[in-house]
Design goal:
alpha/beta, globular
Length: 272
Amino acid sequence: MCVGSYAAAKQIPCRSYFSGERIVIIKVFDDKIQLGEAAARQSADAIKRAISERGQARIIAATGASQFEFLNALTKTPGIDWGKVEMFHLDEYVGLPITHPASFRKYLLERLIEPTGLANYHLLDGGGRPEEVCERVGEKITASPIDVAFVGIGENGHLAFNDPPADFETDEPYIVVNLDEACRRQQVGEGWFAGLDEVPKQAISMTVKQIFRAGEIVCIAPDARKAQAVKNCFENEISPRFPASILRAHQNTTVYLDAESSSSLNPELISK
């Protein structure tokens, strides 16, 4: 049994891994449904705690196929006063209209904002002037602390759209980035685009340092296609070559994996 109230609450079998100089809590579940439910419980607790302590919660939401089960469970969690939640999101393609099936604005409206009635949110307008969007939303996100950030890990190890080699140094909250081919192929593989030529080559992305300003990070990364990236990020050095490896330097991060995405991890990392 994994140590921690989230796993123990439903007696779901999982394992914890030690990683790097800090102890990173990595919870492994049998499938994506169990993973999503457990991650949602921790996230809901973080939101409720922030509202209880400060009267509001400020969150960062991730998108993509890896977040389906998590967001489904989170939006159905009772007792969250979504009227006191302010939401930002990680990234958006440059030049993609909100009507496109791959639009992350469309994704969040359909999978988080509308199901919860969340009214205070800041979407990245990929159809606007990207530098101006970075500046405008950047001013808003840095106005107050972020309580919890939901993130994933890309097939190339990216964190948000910070593809390798990621910029670990910029202090800007959002930047315009060039997407590498591995990242763009992932989007085709997930079914968001019919072919590589349709995938935009640039995106607006939250920076690594801005993600790190969150008091708590919940990382959700299921599926076999993420196994090599998970191994790279938690068994190699913390490096821009493995962008999500930086999560090991954060003071309060929990990583949620399923049996497939954790399948390549070194068994010696398992906490006894």
